[in-house]
Amino acid sequence: MDLDITILVAVLRSTLRQSTPITLGALSGLFCERVGVINIAIEGMMLTAAFTGYMANVWTGNLLLSVAVAILTGGMMALLHGLLAIRFKVDQIISGTVINILAVGLTGYFYQAGTVTKGKMQSVEIPILSDIPIIGDVIFRNAPITYMAVMLVFIVHVVLFRTRWGLRMRAVGEHPRAADTLGINVFTMRYINVAIGGMLAGLAGGFLTLEAVGSFERLMTNGRGFISLAAMIFGKWTPLGGWGAALLFGAANAVQTQIQFTGNVAIPHQFIGMLPYVLTIVVLAGFVGRARPPAAIGRPYETD
Q1: How far apart are CA 65 and CA 69, in angstroms?
Q2: pLDDT tens, 3-37?
Q3: Which of 110, 126, 178, 220 is 20 to 30 A distant from 282 in Cα terms?
Q4: Residues 26, 71: contact at Cβ < 8 Å?
């Protein structure tokens, strides 16, 4: 029984950790798409931020500064996406694709093999709460960015549905001309929220190299940006829904990792590793048609 509990705790802890970059990516897409800007560039923003955050840690050894660099990198990539999509009215799918390709090229070209990091973020135990059986081990013994991701889910929920800023976001995404008539600057709202979304993607990238792994590898995001989009859609463009979907994908990752670790299943590891991506396809195929996106999503705003 003790062994069963140990395995359960290990899977649940892994689920929370694996879901962290997907949760942050889903929130990133949420900020962009709630104001009408499609963001398939989460993958590229995440990858670039993972690289710059890692290199900042290599050069300075300051983890806090390195996280800030990762966040700013994500914001800058998002502003480039915003400039193309909002100012120059480039097709937003094409703009996002350009960002993703640019990220792969930049990180691959500037990556220096053999670099050594100055360490990564360690788990922080919350006194008293961390002593709760099972729950304490799973929730209250994690590293800082994991805690931040969970808190951001609830913060974003309050901002989106309980504040004037959130009301304006939703108005711009649903009916930008009506919002403009009421005195809301549609272009400013879109730029700011796209930048915030990029910074959240940057934090997700920082998680990968500064908290989860402690090193950088080419293409290390491994499709997490696209899985984040699936989580956002599955969650119907809401923070809590996106988090729930991220936990589902995180659980798929945790289970396939545990299966490979135990080695008791006579299935090629490649098929087991496909589990999270198969789940993504199933979710997209089964739920995209049922979820209603913001009405003005993907349409550049034209002033008279």
Answers
A1: 6
A2: 578 888 888 999 999 999 999 999 999 999 999 99
A3: 220
A4: no
Q: Residue 267: helix, strand or coil by DSSP?
A: coil
Instruction: State whether residue 82 is helix, strand or coil.
Output: helix
Distances (CA, A) of 97 to 9, 204, 246: 39, 19, 23
Spatial separation of the C-alpha atoms in residues 273 and 223, rounded to whole Å = 13
Q: Which long-range contacts (CB under 8 A, 24 or more apart) does 122-125 make?
A: none
User: What are all long-range contacts of 283-288, with beta carbons under 8 Å and residues at least 24 apart?
Assistant: 283/230, 283/233, 283/234, 283/245, 284/230, 284/233, 287/233, 287/234, 288/233
Side chain identity at residue 245, one-letter code:
A
Cα–Cα separations (whole angstroms), residue 40 to 191, 218, 264, 304: 16, 19, 38, 29
What 3-state class would DSSP assign to 125? strand
3-state SS class at 142? strand
Please give the span between the terminal C-alpha atoms of the chain, in angstroms, as a whole number.
69
> What six digits make up the tokens of 81?
């996406």
CB of 67 closer than 8 Å to CB of 146: no
Residue 114 CB contacts under 8 Å (≥ 6 apart), including other chains = none
Q: pTM for the whole thing?
A: 0.94
Q: Which of 219, 225, 237, 221 is nearest to 288 (CA)?
A: 237
Bridge partners, 125 (sequence order)? 141
The helix or strand, by DSSP H or E, that contains position 141, with its residue range, turns out to be strand 141-142
